[in-house]
């Protein structure tokens, strides 16, 4: 076992079930509009897989060598279910962060998704710690 593998085993971690897209013999599609009559909105099938998720924050300085950076930055957004706050505050904050850390000349955030268990429903979970 390499020293790298040993270090990863020492990181805090948890096991979780993540949904992966199942293999399909046909081309995957999800209609963003009403599909043709008799056609399902999507033919994507998900398969749950148990995976270990590691807290890589202790390795942040080393990650940049791998083409990845972990940057800690506070946001002034208090409620991520508030679409206006996400669009008008968080997106500009993210653009500024990316400009500052990548040296890019321009950053354009063109979309965001507020994930909900039931589309269109209020989906609030209390007790989730903010980092």
Q: What features would you describe in this structure?
A:
The chain is extended and about 50 Å long. It has helices at 3-10, 60-63, 83-102, and strands at 13-21, 46-54. Residues 127-131 have low confidence and may be disordered. Helix content is 24%, strand content 14%. The protein is an alpha+beta fold and 131 residues long. The chain has a two-stranded antiparallel ribbon with strand order 1-2.
Strand composition percent: 5-15%
Beta strand count: 2
What is the subunit arrangement here?
Answer: single chain
| Broad shape | extended
Q: What is the succession of H and E elements? A: HEEHH
Kindly state the percentage of residues in helix.
10-25%
Radius of gyration over all CA atoms, rounded: 19 Å
Low-confidence stretches: 127-131
Question: What profile does the largest beta sheet have?
Answer: 2 strands, antiparallel
How are the strands of the largest sheet arranged? 1-2
What does the secondary structure layout of this molecule look like, with pairings?
Layout: H1 3-10, E1 13-21, E2 46-54, H2 60-63, H3 83-102
Antiparallel strand pairs: 1-2
């Amino acid at each position: 076992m390499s020293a790298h593998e040993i270090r990863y085993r020492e990181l805090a971690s948890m096991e979780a079930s993540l949904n992966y897209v199942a293999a399909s013999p046909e081309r995957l599609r999800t209609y963003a509009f009403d599909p043709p009559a008799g056609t399902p909105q999507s033919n994507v099938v998900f398969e749950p897989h148990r995976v270990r998720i590691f807290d890589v924050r202790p390795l942040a300085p080393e990650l940049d060598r791998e083409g990845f950076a972990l940057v800690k930055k506070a946001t002034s957004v208090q409620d991520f279910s508030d679409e206006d706050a996400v669009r008008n505050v968080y997106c500009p904050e993210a653009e500024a962060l990316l400009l500052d850390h990548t040296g890019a000349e321009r950053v354009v955030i063109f979309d965001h998704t507020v994930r909900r268990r039931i589309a269109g429903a209020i989906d609030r979970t209390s007790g989730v710690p903010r980092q």
